[in-house]
Design brief:
By secondary structure, this protein is mainly α. It has 2 helices and no strands. The longest helix has 14 residues. The mean pLDDT is 79.
Length: 80
């Protein structure tokens, strides 16, 4: 593998192999392989590494949040 020189943050230098602009060929694009996982009304949340060590699956996170929801008093939803 060919090593490329590090780019300095102030003086951006394009290497000889880099173009100033790239054209994306949409004809060769593939469908998103993760799209099936996302449901219509699901929300994606990134867990901090220490939290992810405890909650290994999305189901375990949902179970914990549902327990908190049952224990906490309900408030009316704020609508805008």
């Amino acid at each position: 593998m060919k090593k490329t020189p590090a780019v300095k943050s102030r003086g951006l230098r394009l290497s000889k192999d880099m173009r100033s602009e790239y054209r994306f060929d949409y004809a060769q694009a593939r469908p998103n392989r993760f799209a099936r996982r996302a449901r219509a009304k699901s929300v994606v949340v990134l867990l901090a590494p220490d939290v992810a060590k405890v909650f290994k699956t999305g189901e375990s996170v949902n179970d914990a949040l549902r327990a908190i929801m049952k224990a906490a008093p309900r408030r009316k939803a704020v609508t805008s």
